[in-house]
């Protein structure tokens, strides 16, 4: 585990790309689409020429039936020729998150049903890639399909992948040639040395590499982003502390109250920085109404 402080980054430290705000800021920009092209070429193990110029970034809003998840934003939605690719960043992994990802995958896939296609013959393929920071897999990348009891695939039109980035980090230390494992290290690195070492000179095109380094360093040197990063880190530390205290004392109500108050404070800070409502919801877990009430009280 990394030590969590509440002051500033030490010399040589960076804000990791798997920090929600930085991940969204970098990877949803149309001008950074070449970074995504290089990642997907590595992920699918194909030549970059098969992806270059064919990738599109799509709107991320989902209309879900559940009132709790209504208007929820998925992390990154892409189109590669006729296929839809949904990328979800999971810094924590649980049964609930697994189920949420399944809901997102099926909801995204339902978009492929074309208007007036009453025969359901024109449905395109959907791939959801779950970037899991916590160790969850038996191997680096696992694929899931709809299957019957004998293991026969019912359909390959919807695929859910789990990429175990913690396992990828471990693989890197003994197998530098594994480029997908190195991507896991790049996405989770917390020091500039580690980030640049595993980025290397062969993971992506020279100009794209330079862009990714510049973007990462830009957010690492941004005081507001650093403050937000430490607020989130502190909130996570306190969340874990509350949970541990709950296990020992059973003070469930006190825990929930403390966590809620902490999220309120983080939301207030983010509102002061004019950050988007969707991002505040994602980081704090507060409802839209709760955040709007805080905004009105400013």
Note down, in words, how this protein is organized.
With 298 residues, the protein is an alpha/beta fold. Helix content is 48%, strand content 14%. The protein has 11 helices and 6 strands. The chain has helices at residues 20-27, 33-43, 95-110, 165-174, 179-188, 192-199, 206-220, 223-249, 252-272, 277-284, 288-297, and strands at 55-58, 76-80, 83-90, 126-132, 141-147, 153-164. The protein has a 6-stranded mixed β-sheet with strand order 1-2-3-4-6-5, with helices on both faces. Strand 3 (83-90), helix 3 (95-110) and strand 4 form a beta-alpha-beta unit. Helix 4 (165-174) crosses helix 5 (179-188). The two termini are 36 Å apart.
Keywords:
single chain; 298 residues; alpha/beta; 6-stranded mixed beta sheet; 11 helices; 48% helix; disordered N terminus
Topology, please?
Elements: H1 20-27, H2 33-43, E1 55-58, E2 76-80, E3 83-90, H3 95-110, E4 126-132, E5 141-147, E6 153-164, H4 165-174, H5 179-188, H6 192-199, H7 206-220, H8 223-249, H9 252-272, H10 277-284, H11 288-297
Parallel strand pairs: 3-4, 4-6
Antiparallel strand pairs: 1-2, 2-3, 5-6
Helix pairs in contact: 4-5, 5-6, 8-9, 9-10
